[in-house]
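Give me the fold.
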Amino acid sequence: MNPLDSLYRDLIMDHARHPQGKGLQDPFDGESFQVNPTCGDQVRLRVDLDNTGEQPKLAQVSWDGQGCSISQASVSMMKDLVEGEDLDQVAHLEEIFGRLMHSRGQGIDPDEAALLGDAEALEGTSRYPMRVKCALLGWMALKDAVAKAQAGDNSPAGAPEGI
């Protein structure tokens, strides 16, 4: 294993062992529950929006879930990356991360990849199609929760309690 792969592996494991934003918070404006049916990974994610400025911002992201180290690390990295950003930037980061995950190990423009912060460490995951779904799970929950928040739907996500 080359030193960069080792560093990325350590970063992923650190986020998986010490996840950022884990623990559901109230109040929230939107919630989503997502499951990866191929492996059983699950995440319930809540967002709270700040609509006081010119652009709505993602004031808070909280989540709970269970699954592999990739799914847990990805949502932790995502939380750190998007919290406090305006929703246009959140959508832009989501699009970049999606392209990274579908690059099949070829990567993306280095300047764009750098915008992903710690989440850039998940690039190696893109070589394994079954693991891409794990890395994207939290991002799908984020997109859904933001859409619900913008629509004024903060009803429970319809998943079992405790997740």
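The chain has one domain: 3-150.
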